[in-house]
## 1
Amino acid sequence: MITRSGCGCDGAQSQEFAEFVRRELHAAADQVQPSADGLERIRAKIGSSASP
Amino acid sequence: VTETLVATDAIMPGAFLAPAAARTGARMGWSADHAVTELYSLHYRALVRLATLLVRDVSTAEEVVQDAFVAMHGGWQRLRDGESALPYLRQAVVNRSRSVLRHRAVVNKNLQKALPDMPSAEYGALVLLERSAVVAALRRLPERQREAIALRYYADLSEAEIAATMRISRGAVKSHTARGMAALRAALERE
């Protein structure tokens, strides 16, 4: 694992860990590709919620 | 779950960056339909990715974000200006994600009695995400810590923006973020 042991109280080390977390979250989440019909589904839900 | 229509003067950073036209949409007289179309093109993907980090599967994340857009459409006339739209959407996504997780916890508690340790097919996308040790560790954090970290380090929001999104104080944001980061670090060091 990429982390380093320590108390976490060192500013530079905390900054480094924060950047690591940021990169990992972006790398993981950016794999997510929403379906192409999202807008159509929103419009359909709006239409059905407006119906009596 | 309802979302208060909160306006902030926040700038939208990182993945949530929006052009000036989108931030002033309501002032420019966008209709609710046009606002949905514009904000969808600008923010839908990033909001789904944020929601996926919170609820752990893409299908549910899309439902959560779509419902947030529907709610925004319904409340468009009450939004004070277009700058409120994105904070409103974020808040709706976080609130609805929370509701989904609470409902799922109840359902899983019952399911586990019948199917112990059996992974659900709907978590297929989750498996992909959780190849990341950080995402896997994030999933195990308490709800508020997970939200604060996802909003800070994925959505790149400021403390003030996170506070508005989670409807907590900036001090609480600091506390949840610090505790969450310490727990993440400890979890990753154990692996």
Note: Chain A is about 60% helix and 0% strand.
## 2
Amino acid sequence: VRFVDEFRDGALGQKVAAQILGVVEPGRHYKVMEVCGGHTHSIYRYGVDDLLPENVELVHGPGCPVCVIPMGRVDDGIAIAREPGVIFTCFGDMLRVPGSNGTLLDAKARGADIRMVYSPLDALRIAKAEPDREVVFFAIGFETTAPSTALTLMRARAEGVKNFSCMCNHVTIVPPLRALLESPDLRLDGFIGPGHVSTVVGARPFEFIPADYGRPVVIAGFEPLDILHAIHMILAQLGEGRCEVENQYTRVVPYDGNPAALRAMAEVFALRPHFEWRGLGFISQSALRLSDAYAELDAERRFSVPGVRVADPKACQCGEVLKGVIKPWECKVFGTACTPEHAIGTCMVSPEGACAAYYNYGRFAREKEVV
Amino acid sequence: VAVEMRVVEVNDLLAVCEAEGEAREVEVALLDDVREGDVLLVHADVGLVKL
């Protein structure tokens, strides 16, 4: 298989589904977590779960960057955006994430100069074009996105751009996985590892999962055939009594990741002692701040932020969805009070969020099933 | 989400890359020896892998 249409070929998908059926043990229930929101999106978009045997359950993990940003950080961002002379920049889906008093989009409607960008480099261009304004980039994302922020900050410093700074909300994938594995709420049999994060960090950081917790991990691509193939590899490991990290996405992911990206991140960022994840609470050493060497580009040092912890709305069950404890449709407000147009929880905002992916694709199949 | 883009021009650590008729300026500092015609996996305007 080489071309993208082959990776989406229904007949090939059926063949892999038959191979999966051949390796499952009847009477055993398997729970496999896809860590990455990109996988969740593909699973619902292409109906991957419809091809699986009933005793193979996919559980959605915490790997959606927008979903894990807590309300307090949104409030901090809005506080900076309201400062006189500030141009506040962020990715498009971040604009719709609710804080305690509305979203960044609401703040923009009330007069703050908040602009959507595709990358930190776009934000730096705005800073160069508007030297009399302070331009702040609200950085979010896992290790896939952190190198982009790191390179832009290195460029800003090298080019002497003084009116640019970054509010860093980058998070790392390993600590929440460890927290999930320690959680008594959840018994998982294996993990579909995050394909794009692994292009940066490689496969090695996931070796603790088989070593310490006895669970297989298969790093996978994002096409439906990739995901089916990865599920087959996980179930085959379980059937053969093996437990290791395997790489299904070899056409993209080197086992050692991208060392230049890791060096850039190590120069620009330092680990925060702890960071709040929406719905998951505080997790130690799970997020990045700017290193002392880049302190002058740190928006949290340049501006004053409230830094207040804000509890999630009581009705919102994003935390349980992010931990894989409940399915999106089991949330009390799913599809009624909480929709992509009027999201209460973050999982309904980003296309990579489990609730949005299920709302956009999966619910129709389920409605048919229920009828 | 990362996307595959083809390099159409290289200017030191930046390259103009194209996908589906859309062109973006992309940082290629993390990759060795990027040339016109290479296909990169790009995320947030940074080339992460040469495919």
Note: The CA atoms of residues 237 and 342 of chain A lie 42 Å apart.
## 3
Amino acid sequence: VFGDDAEAFAKVQSGFKADIIHPCSSWWGLYVESGLVQPLDTTRLTAWEDIPEAFRKQSEINGQYYFVPWDWYYEALLVRSDLVPEMPTTLADLWDPMYAGHISLWDNGEVSFATAALAFGIDPFNTTPEQDQFVKEKLIELKPNLLTYWLDYTQAIELSSSGDAWIVASAWQDTYSVMVDEGYDVAYVEPEEGYLAGLCGYGIGTDNTNLDLTYEFLNAAIDPHSMANFTNEYWYGAANFAANEFIDDEAAELLRLDDFENVLLNTRFYQPLTAERRDQLSDLWNEVKAAP
Amino acid sequence: MSDEKSLNTPDAMKEERGGTVKKITGIPRKSQLALLVAPSFIWLIILLVLPLITMIGLSFQKSAFGVDSDVFTFASYINFWQNSAYQNLLMKSLWISLLVAVISIVLAYPVAYFLAFHAGDKQGLLLNIMIIPAWTSFLLRVLAWRLILGSNGLLNTFLMWLGVIQEPISGLFYSVNAVVITLVYIWIPFAALPIYVALLRIEPGLLEAASDLGARPWQGFFKVTLPLSIPGILASFLYVFIPTVGEYVTPALVGGPNGLMIGNIIWDQFMRGLDWPMGATLSLMVMLIVIIPLVIMARAAQQTGILGGKSE
């Protein structure tokens, strides 16, 4: 059990023996690099071919597949339509003084960096040091507009439902689904810059010897029915596209499954980060937060 | 002498324990002391000294994991000295703690004064009432302030109902002010206790003497009560100041983008950034900066005999 990806990595790295690990794509490289996961035998996965090539490709590191893509999500703007003076349409709108004191950003360096970079037309995954500096200044400039940083999904929901945060940035579909279920007047806005998106999946721990059971579990996890159920409940994306026919219209529309090829063109999935880059981003983020 | 007697056990028991030739009472006082201190000593070694040594080691590593963990470097310290963001945040944290400590003491002093001199029979009851909130989890009490300070919170709703304000005051929550208010609330009982104890120890005769000699009540307070309660005030200050410098939960929950403290960044370095060396360095810096004034203060206090120590 872990709170977030970083905590999980710290735990596994310092000796916790996990049979199966479920990190998100930007961490996959680090797990492989640190020798914490073993390559997959994709022939033992029944639904491997139903997972889109775009997803499978992300799990390929040094010519081998290491992770079974399982869930994916968009990061969009969760907006209280009843409270904002005007609907935001772009990420750059977050800097609009109109929203001063009513925006909540995720307390996550990697994500906030990507969001700010994208807002100012910079490729978040390939920056120069000057661009890093620029993004950092922009994030500091954003502070007067912020209500607070949100730490987890529960807090994001609370901030939005209390009406204190008009816009919750980097919100996943599950947050939106809870707000809709609770009857709040919310919108899930795809920024004009395109979605940032993440993909998560299962990897098998290096010391796992019980592979028969492990593959049985993985096959059950990516089974179309169980995946469709997962999507219908939480509005997360299912990596197994064979599940799509069982997905409710509402969820399918939100995820834009019918138009997925086009969505992919305009969506940036988080790329694997090296340990060094992760350090840089975390330092940058800490300096933003420490700035007066 | 009586405490030595109480250690006296029957011979049979002594035999069972491996037959010490000497009677237990015969153990020299120094060994008795060692025996008594041993559990807390071991506790401190395992939970304080060893982790501290680990932290110091960690702060000189290049990375916490992988091959880089064997590389010895001053990089984290250099990073700290070159990075004004960390230094400013540390100064801000110290400032917040100072503010909290001073406000807590100012607010706690009258409470303690009342308890010690005017509560009479009700002393015990009132003391308990003061401490009862501390039985609730720290976290819950911080969360409760969200209900009070939020833009739809109790305070704003109340003020709007009274007609004092038309729009909710938004600066109350998610700000440095919220952090200070919450922390002061939490620490008042802890600040009051040492002052209360110090006030109890004041001989009533001294105040009577003061008034006999023609001092007005306020003069009596400033010339007698206050100076004699200084040890309590200092203890309160340390009680409040030290834990709040490293405070993490409160700023994270009510601090907003500008109310963060150094503890939040340290947590971040360990849990999110996975930059354990930097986290360790920052922690040690905080300790160092807190310890130096403490040592100076303690020394000054000892020399002036203010802490009740023998000054001759």
Note: Chain A has a mean pLDDT of 86.
